Amino acid sequence: MPKAQLLLVEDDSALAELVRWHFEREEFDVQHTGDGEEALLMAKERTPDLVLLDWMLENLSGIEVCRQLRKADNTANVPIIMLTARGEEDDRIRGLEIGADDYVTKPFSPRELVARAKAVLRRVRPALAGEALRFGDVEMDTVAHKVKRGGKQVPLGPTEYRLLKHFLEYPGHVFSRERLLDSVWGHDSDIEIRTVDVHIRRLRKALNEGFDSDIIRTVRSAGYSLDQDAV
Amino acid sequence: MPKAQLLLVEDDSALAELVRWHFEREEFDVQHTGDGEEALLMAKERTPDLVLLDWMLENLSGIEVCRQLRKADNTANVPIIMLTARGEEDDRIRGLEIGADDYVTKPFSPRELVARAKAVLRRVRPALAGEALRFGDVEMDTVAHKVKRGGKQVPLGPTEYRLLKHFLEYPGHVFSRERLLDSVWGHDSDIEIRTVDVHIRRLRKALNEGFDSDIIRTVRSAGYSLDQDAV
DNA sequence: CTCTTGTGTTACACTATTGTGACGGTCATG
DNA sequence: CATGACCGTCACAATAGTGTAACACAAGAG
């Protein structure tokens, strides 16, 4: 299983080390900085899977970092957990409204922090949390690399598997062919766009074998998405 | 108006009413029960968008309800926030590990609970966290490329979709046919002006199917706009 | 009321987009 | 190194969506 990339932004270095230790023990890959500006650069360069963000920073307030992260394309969807000494209700609400996914007040239990991090990750990137991905009656076991529909195993080729996985990670989202080429085939591949159609076709065929509803929706001139009810 | 469906499972009825009041004020549609078995039935019948789940229930423990919800196809992906009097770290961690998305200990601030609920929803169903375009009873989820009126899905072609999106982005604004050609078709297209009428017609037809009010207003010699009470 | 202008409605030919099956090549794997 | 699974591409078929014209209808001006 690939490790989850964690970006820890915290200027109390003793605390940072403690947190790092707990997360590394849980197979996270931890990057750390105490500086807001630097955090933004690091996030831009290598998109983390999760950000732990201290509210009080030297250069740039945590809340500002949070806002900036939400603005940039590559980090707009990265989950953020705010860490803070402030326990005021209004602050917590403000943090959540600005786009944080969770909010933990100091002093916190590192184990609970890890549990919360996993809960958030499970939601956003289930595959990283070692969770089974599922949508309707389709279930993907990312550890065993197996896919079932209605309890029956579905044989998939590697590309179909990655394609389905991508859809399962963002259930319901419509992806353009271009976007799918980027995410599933890789940023730099010079593959014909229509190749996507063919693999969608193969994926459909495999998934619908023995069923009469099609869980892949074609959105004309936009792309494809998962959908429970074939419209 | 399409609201987020909230299932509240809580056997302290005074508390339940308080929570209900706060969520309804925020445009949630709240269903309530104090019984675990009943909660499962309700969730099965009408899949909620979010579940608030008390840990201590009469029939079935909250944790068991949580587990059952995760098993059923239609509720496997529904986010769950656990409510509990227990503040023990181990309990919190256990709740999160079992698949809860968040965990709030009593006594909690209702406002914070609402903020947390929204944070979770924003992640799972952006369309329900106020990030969808809407006007009156028409709602557009730009991520899933879906349009609903009064909760019922409306099938639209690509051009109708773009046209409606444009109107929704400037609610109430009147656009001339020329302006619409520019914005929706592109300012270099050499399309007949009357084509706009035809697409307006198609959009109307699709949106008004099964309703008797027309939300598109014709402004004679000026253009079209969205309007709640156009006839 | 009648004329003129603007809008609603429909049918239809045409275009764009997507579905599908076949094919040759490649790459692991035994 | 032989074999089979898998891949990307293409050509053609099927389908959905588009623009236009023609006519019907409605609203205001005089």
UniProtKB/TrEMBL annotation, chains A, B:
GO terms for cellular component: cytosol; protein-DNA complex. The modification 4-aspartylphosphate is found at D54. Its main location: cytoplasm. Residues 130-228 form the OmpR/PhoB-type domain. It is found in: Cytoplasm. It comes from the Bacteria. Residues 130-228 bind DNA. Keywords: Activator, Cytoplasm, DNA-binding, Phosphate transport, Phosphoprotein, Transcription, Transcription regulation, Transport, Two-component regulatory system. CDD domains: trans_reg_C. PROSITE patterns: OMPR_PHOB, RESPONSE_REGULATORY. SUPFAM superfamilies: C-terminal effector domain of the bipartite response regulators, CheY-like. GO terms for molecular function: phosphorelay response regulator activity; transcription cis-regulatory region binding. One of its GO terms (biological process) is phosphate ion transport. Residues 5-121 form the Response regulatory domain. Pfam families: Response_reg, Trans_reg_C. This protein is a positive regulator for the phosphate regulon. Transcription of this operon is positively regulated by PhoB and PhoR when phosphate is limited. This is Phosphate regulon transcriptional regulatory protein PhoB. It comes from Sphingorhabdus rigui.
